Amino acid sequence: MQMVSLTRKALGFGLAVLFALSLMPAASAGALAITTNDFVPFALVNLVPCANGGAGELVLISGTLHIEQHITINDNRATIKSHFQPQGAGGVGLTTGDVYNATGVTQEVDTVPLTNGAAEFTFTNNFRIIGQGPGNNLLVHQTIHTTINANGDVTSVVSNTSAECQ
């Protein structure tokens, strides 16, 4: 889904902030926190395989994406929390002209060391494209968790993805 690329952009932003902060002189033992809160227009085309009587159709979805990011730095660790949620998002089937609503929440929590140490990345995406009538609703759920030890070795990857029509 398109939300993955947006989340990776957010992670890039977070890592850039962390790099800039790592160049600053060490602060006192207190935590440093930064929060951003943005609303950006978006548009994407997504396949709904159960639409159009089961033949499937591409749906053009647009709306506003609420993006909230929170970065906390404590000692040698940084935690980056990203939250993405469409607001007033809807779509139109490019074949049938059917109207759809788009809802969901995508979240990512990354815990990374500023110098050496273990890291964890957790990505959760719940996205729904809801059509009028029965049988043309797409529900997507993704959870991806990665653990990296202090040596930089990936020690665990858990990936669960489901997409179903209702």
Helix tally? 1
> Quick check: average pLDDT?
87
Spatial strand arrangement across the major sheet:
1-2-3-4-5-6-7
The Cα radius of gyration reads 19 Å
| Number of separate strands | 7
- Oligomeric state of the chains in view: single chain
Low-confidence stretches: 1-8, 23-28
Distance between the termini: 19 Å
Shape summary: elongated
| Structural domain tally | 1
Helix vs. strand class: mainly beta
Q: What proportion of the residues is helical, as a percent range?
A: 10-25%
Note the main sheet: 7 strands, antiparallel
Strand content: over 45%
Encode the helix/strand succession as letters: HEEEEEEE
What does this structure look like?
By secondary structure, the chain is mainly beta. The chain has one domain (2-165). 13% of the residues lie in helices and 62% in strands. It has a seven-stranded antiparallel β-sheet, with helices on one face. The chain is elongated and about 55 Å long. It starts with a helix and ends with a strand. The model is unreliable at 1-8 and 23-28 (pLDDT under 50).
Question: How are the secondary structure elements laid out?
Answer:
Elements: H1 2-22, E1 32-48, E2 57-74, E3 77-93, E4 99-113, E5 119-131, E6 138-148, E7 154-165
Antiparallel strand pairs: 1-2, 2-3, 3-4, 4-5, 5-6, 6-7
